[in-house]
Give the backbone structure.
Amino acid sequence: MKLVLIPFVLGISAFAANVNAVPMHSKRATSFHASASCAAVYVTLGSQTETCKTDMAADVGAVVSISLDSLLLDFTGPDPLAAKVSSKGLKVQLAKIPGPFPLSFPITGTREVDNTVDMATFGTPWSSATVDNMNVMTTTVEECALKIIPEQQAAFSKFITSVIMSSTTQGFILKGTVDANFTLSLPFGQKITTLPGVGFSSKASLGGLNGLSSASFVRRTTDNSWDANKMFLFNFEVKITIPSQISIAVGDLSFNTVTGTGASRVDLGVSTTKDVRLAPGDNLLQVTLTAKGSDETVFFNALKSNGNVVVLEGFSESSKNKVIADAFAPVKIQLTLSF
């Protein structure tokens, strides 16, 4: 499993974060005991010292691991440097509180108060949460805006490429600070309180899309036709099976389409598919190949001479969104057409 450094963070949060709102801290010379003591003081007094804020914002191992049952990334909005992100299933393995008694985490809701990373920032509304007797917290990531740092656009695109092309899993790191709602049982009854600024950092992974290599030709969808410029059109349907838990919406995509290799390579034209939304399982895409000329005979002869095999190649203008265009530029999809 390849590991990259935090291209984005999947959080459970309350509002779009200001990158300078809460200082981000790496693991430091503080301890789970120190943070737990600060938490106890906060629950009792409702306030924190600056030292406690720093201790609690540090990653002290409260989160052991994080797994995602699903993830939606939607890049179809008007801003190329913003996307919508959400997850229906986020599971967090929490550490056991040290001590002689088997204490649990009575967490009922969480939000991230700062989500500053190398490539993007985002925050989400409060999400309900449950914690089982194994200290596994289950929650969701409600839809929120992910904002790509302009200077990191190329790095973010590269990360998306790695998810698309990977045949196994793509690792990354989640980090930040969260607020957590606790329901505490006290001698005089239950008390709901919010514990602010708890730091965390953990590895997570996404299943890769295997270079979209599962793509297969389904059928030709129309008879011979031509566009307004009298260019020949070949319309067909493609099935792509996504093996990952990720869903990604990228809008319209275009691919240079070629047949043959070496001296027999022929540039057939450009294939375009509209409103691409890939989800786990089978996806059907409607594709229009706009040939470079009007003569269908030339088109079909080039195909036949190369076994009807074509390759759809990503390029620098595969999408109007540069983040997506750069991410799909290395993609090559091989198909065997029939007609």
